Amino acid sequence: MSDCGGSATAENANNDPTLKKPVSSKRLPIDNKHDDSPSDRISSRCTRSPQKNRHGRRIRWAPLNIGLERRLQTFVVLCHTLTIAIFLTIFFFSCAIPLLWPVLIPYLIYISLFSTTATSGSLGGRCNLLRSLRIWKIYASYFPARLHRSEHLPPTRKYIFGYHPHGIISHGAFAAFATEALGFSELFPGITNTLLTLDSNFRIPFYREYALAMGIASVSRESCENILTQGGIDGEGMGRAITIVIGGARESLDALPQTLRLVLKRRKGFIKLAIRTGADLVPVLAFGENDLYEQIRSEDHPVIHKFQMLVKRVMGFTIPLFHARGIFNYDVGLMPYRRPLNIVVGRPIRVTQQRDREKLDDNYIDLLHTMYVQELERLWAQWKDLYAKDRLSEMEIIA
C-alpha cells in the first residue's frame, strides 16, 4: 500500500475545519479500464449467483490482454490473502522430510510452549527491509489504497491507533500499518508502529516468523502493555504506537458494502489500556474497507449467524460467508474487488496516565470513549461525501 500524497495538509488548509484536507501518501498509479466499477457493486441484500451476475448476464471473464502490472498486482494480493495457507503447506511438506524432524520437533515445542517474542514488547524479529519491499506498493496499488493524516503526531508521545471497520480481512490495516507501502514513516516520522493480531496466529509454524518480521505482534493485554512501556526514545515507550482493529471478529459479520456498522459501544478495554500506559488515542477510519467483499446478511440467515457467533466464542474468530471476484473473472471468487481504500487518521485524544489498574476512574473512561466516538463521527461527516459517495446508509455504532 507507489507512495501516497496528493491532498493538501490540514495544517495549511483554511481555518474552517470542515474544509481541511489531511496529508496523504502519494497517489498510486492505476488503470481503471478493467476495475470493478461502482455500478457493478452488488446489492447488500444477497450474493451473486455463481452462474450469472446480478444483471442476469454470465460471469465476466478478464480479457487476455491485461497488462503485466495489473497481473502482478493480482498475484501479490492473492499471495497475501493465502499467506497462512502457503506457510502451512510449506510446513507440511517439510514434515514429510525425516531429515528435518530433529529441527521441526524442537521448533514446534518452542513456539507452542516457550516463545514470548510476540508478547514481550521487544519487537524481536522485526525487519524494516521486508516492510519496505516494492511488492507492498504493488499490493496497495491493486485497490488502490491511500493513507491520509489529519494532524502531525509528535514522536515524544505514545499512541493507540484504533482502526475501523474490521472488514473481512482488514486489507487497509495491513497496507497502512504493517508495511511502508503508504508511507507511514513519512507521514508520522519518529513513530514505530506495531499492528496487532490474535495471539493464536503466533502458534502457526513458519507463518509466525513471517508475521514477526512484518512487525506484527499479539493483541493480548500483556503484549500491548509491554510495547507501550518499553523501548522508544526514553526506554518507556515514547515514540511507539500500536494499531488495534477495535471491532474484531464480531464486526466482520457486519462488513457489508456501502455501509459502516461499528462494534464499539461496549469496547472500552483499549481505553483502559490507554489510561494505564499514558498512550494517546488516535481514531482511524478506513473508507472502502467494507466494499472489498460481499457476504450474506446475518439478519436474513439467523441460524448461520448463531453458528458464526458460536465459533467466535469457542475459537476467538469467526467465519464470514463472503465472496468477491476471482483471479480471472470479475464476479465470483475470494479475491477482493478493486475498489479504493482511503484510510484517514484522525486527531489524537490526549490521555492522562493512571498506572493503578484497580483505581481507574469510570467517569474518565466514559469521557475518553465519548471523545473517541465523536472524533470518528467527525471523520465520517467530513469525508463521507468524498470517499463514501455510494453509501446506502450513515455510520452506525450497533453494539
From TrEMBL:
Functional summary from the UniProt entry: Catalyzes the terminal and only committed step in triacylglycerol synthesis by using diacylglycerol and fatty acyl CoA as substrates.
A molecular-function term among this protein's GO annotations: diacylglycerol O-acyltransferase activity
GO BP term, pick one: glycerol metabolic process
Gene Ontology cellular component list: endoplasmic reticulum membrane
Functional pathway: Lipid metabolism; Glycerolipid metabolism; triacylglycerol biosynthesis
Name of the protein in its database record: Diacylglycerol O-acyltransferase
InterPro entries: DAGAT (IPR007130)
Domain of life per record: Eukaryota
Chain residue ranges for the region called Disordered: 1-54
Keyword field: Acyltransferase, Endoplasmic reticulum, Glycerol metabolism, Lipid biosynthesis, Lipid metabolism, Membrane, Transferase, Transmembrane, Transmembrane helix
UniProt keyword ATP-binding, yes or no: no
Pfam families per record: DAGAT
Start-end of Basic and acidic residues biased regions: 28-43
UniProt entry tagged with the keyword Endoplasmic reticulum: yes
Top EC group: transferase
Lineage: Eukaryota, Fungi, Dikarya, Ascomycota, Pezizomycotina
E.C. designation(s): 2.3.1.20
Family the entry assigns: Belongs to the diacylglycerol acyltransferase family.
Bilayer disposition of the protein: Multi-pass membrane protein
Annotated localization: Endoplasmic reticulum membrane
Membrane-crossing residue ranges in chain numbering: 75-101, 107-129
Catalytic activity entry: an acyl-CoA + a 1,2-diacyl-sn-glycerol = a triacyl-sn-glycerol + CoA
